[in-house]
Amino acid sequence: MYKKIMVPLDGSKLAESVLPHLESLVKEGGQGEVVVVRVVEPYNFRIMSGEELPKAEDLLRFDAQARAAAEKYVQAVVEGVKVNGVNVRGEVLVGRPSVKLAEYADSGGFDLVVLATHGRSGVSRWVWGSVADRLLRAVCVPILMIRAPGCAPGILFRFSPHRGQGDRRRKKRMRNPFFRWQEETAVKSPARNR
């Protein structure tokens, strides 16, 4: 199993859905370590016409409050995670989540990064972006993505016995869990949904 696991959390129940899986992933016998990581983004403000600029003291206060809340959250998660014989600790970073998590994962000596994903695809993924996707592309450490509970992928194709050989092959692949990614990345065709 793994000796050192990084678990990025954003404060959501979705992100915390990975916590029950840790015990089966970490090395037993007290040799393992789990690091719960939360990234705080510096306060960003947008200026509308006619508005005053925020004072520097206010920005510093907002950042300090966000960091204190993140540290309190991480400490609560660390205290709540019980993995037999394994050291669980927390870390709060400041910056852009995808950048800071990638840097920390590569420099922290981790064997595995475990995180939850929304399971978005297509336009919603393009519009909303995905820290998980950016992390997957930027890190050299193995990543285990756990889909949100109750987020079963739907089948995007309607299969007909009257269609050609291509549909039979696709249907066979769709039954195989290895090819499940096709369900997520395929585009619905209006002709197939009649």
Keywords:
globular, Rossmann fold, alpha/beta, five-stranded parallel β-sheet
Write the layout of secondary structure elements.
Blueprint: E1 4-9, H1 13-16, H2 22-25, E2 33-40, H3 56-80, E3 87-94, H4 97-107, E4 112-117, H5 122-128, H6 131-138, E5 143-147, H7 165-175, H8 181-185
Parallel strand pairs: 1-2, 1-4, 2-3, 4-5
Helix pairs in contact: 4-6
Describe the structure.
By secondary structure, the protein is of the alpha/beta class. It folds into two domains: 4-152, Rossmann fold; 153-194, no CATH class. 39% of the residues lie in helices and 17% in strands. The protein has a five-stranded parallel beta sheet with strand order 3-2-1-4-5, with helices on both faces. Helix 4 (97-107) packs parallel to helix 6 (131-138).
CATH class of the largest domain: Alpha Beta
Distance between the termini: 48 Å
What is the helical fraction, as a range of percent? 25-40%
Sheet with the most strands: spatial strand order: 3-2-1-4-5
Give the low-confidence spans.
154-194
Structural class: alpha/beta
CATH superfamily of the largest domain: HUPs
Beta strand %? 15-25%
The Cα radius of gyration reads 21 Å
Give a quick precis of the structure.
The chain is 39% helix and 17% strand. The protein has helices spanning 13-16, 22-25, 56-80, 97-107, 122-128, 131-138, 165-175, 181-185; strands at 4-9, 33-40, 87-94, 112-117, 143-147.
